[in-house]
Design brief:
By secondary structure, the chain is α+β, with helices and mostly antiparallel strands. The protein has 16 helices and 17 strands. It has 5 domains: 2-150, Beta-Lactamase (2-Layer Sandwich); 196-231; 232-323, Beta-Lactamase; 329-399, Helix Hairpins; 407-553, Heat Shock Protein 90. Bound molecules: adenosine-5'-diphosphate.
Amino acid sequence: MRSRIFVSMLILVLLTIMLSTLFLFAVYYQQLSKDVEREMNNGVAYVSAGIKAVGYDYLSEIDGLDRNSRITLVDLDGTVLFDNFADVSNMDNHRDREEIAEAMSEGRGQSVRFSKTLDSHYYYLAVRLDDGKVLRISARADSIFTVFMDNIVLIIAIALVAFLILLILARQLTKRIVEPINKIDLENPDESEIYDELSPLITRIRKQRSHIEQQMVELKKKQDEFIAITEGMDEGLIVLDKMGYILSINNRALELVGSSRSDQTGIHFLELIREFQVQKTIESALDGKFLEKSFKIENKIVELRANPVFEGKEVKGAIVLLVDVTEKYRAETIRKEFSANVSHELKTPLTSIYGYAELLKNGLVKEEDVQSFYQRIIDEASRLITLIDDIIKLSQLDERTTDLVKEKLNLYDRAKNIIGTLELMSQEKMITVTLEGGDAWIYGVPRLIDDLIYNLCHNAIKYNRPKGSVNVKLSKKAGRVLLSVKDTGIGIPKEHHDRIFERFYRVDKSHSKETGGTGLGLSIVKHITNYHEGIISLDSDRDKGTEITISFPEA
Ligand code: ADP
């Protein structure tokens, strides 16, 4: 701006200088012409007065005195009698010269014309003397251009000085115009020292400022709302522009793509997401195609929905939604496996029962073996019942179909009862079961808590060694109640710890028939624990015994 004002001023200065120089020169030239004319008039008057007083000899007297004015005397017939610049014998008859002819007829004549004799433009002024002869005085009439060129150095020098002075003035003036504008404090426009002409600008700046401030507040509000919504979402959300640069990303999305960087806005999505297939899915959204796919990202199964955003027919960007479906996927897999396992688990005892019954019916069993066959049928049937019982419990826990009402209950009393019901079994296996601790109150569903304690104690006896022991202990720690069941049994090798709570998972599958286990006991324990906001911990190893501890929130 400053340089534009300065340049404009400079052009103005140059134009002014040029025009005023030309104008002044024209005036000067005009004046010069007038001076020449006056001088010639004077000259004519003096010379004619001289001739009158002295006679024509006067001309010879003044010949050579004035080298600027040419003096010519022409006879009545036009013959040149005297000329102080040229040799009269070589001169033409001058009767036809405009000023001479005019002077002869009118008494006075003048003209400006080119003189061949002197090879230059001349002013001519002629007067008729008393005897009829004509006295003519002439002076060189320089053209305006010639005069201009004669004085060019001076003109340029003056113009240059004027230019330099105006240059300094223009610079200062520009500074004076621009400085107040530069000094306007946009934050506090009203406090700026300005000249009057800037007031409308300041008013406008003030208005614009308050308008912008208002819009900023609105924008901030909207942005906060957007952040609050997106950060509250369980889904990951990424908004991309049409080039694939991230306009917005919520923390959940960062978490799901496994990024540790916090602010990812402004970077390209390819820098954030390294999985090739995911990149391709997002790219197809930026090409205008909606895609929904599941990917494994960092041990999680993430469902990715990439939606193109259109404006008219043009893709303006993409919205990518990421949903963690690991749990859903896992639950589905478990359900599928469970259905397959259930069919298999049910089929085995039923096939046995069918086989024994058929043998009995066809009389293929020896009389003395009949009883044992009946017993086998009863065993298999009871195994089937236990299995179906467990399956029903699990599916009830899964679906939460029955109304599972929690009430305040004492784990100590519950454990005491269960140990009582298992007394026969423990005696048979010569296992000592002890109960340690005191009252331990929790909120729980009595039937489920009983199942939980039963399964733990039952396993502790079942997988124990003869003459082994089981210790059920109740204690409290940091606002929680701990129930631990510890045995001196065969233990669970470390490599099975991860899977021991899965449905139908057994450490020793070949012996499961002997132990009569269904493989669902610990799975039920885990479900019940989760239902009561409990935490399970397992401490066990091969031949080292097992301790399973469950902590519940204290009532
Ligand atoms: P099961 O009906 O076979 O006992 P569970 O789900 O109760 O099924 O247990 C799963 C597996 O964990 C069992 O088959 C057994 O191998 C192992 N297990 C459970 N409890 C104990 C324990 N106290 N000592 C050793 N192994 C155990």
